[in-house]
Write a structure and sequence with these properties.
The chain is an all-alpha fold. Helix content is 83%, strand content 0%. The protein has a domain of 36 residues. The model has no long low-confidence stretch (mean pLDDT 88).
Amino acid sequence: MIANGGNLLSQFLGSKEKFIEQASNSLQAYLTQIESAYPLFQNNTSLTEYLNGAYHSD
């Protein structure tokens, strides 16, 4: 019984570890996307004003 319980615990911990690794990889991908988009907004006053609603429609 104890060996089987230990196996279940190992499987549980292994699945949790895999989940954390997947979440970490997803977070890293999102951070990479943010880092690549940041320069577009950093010094682009026209774009940031447009996104804030300060634009004129014809």
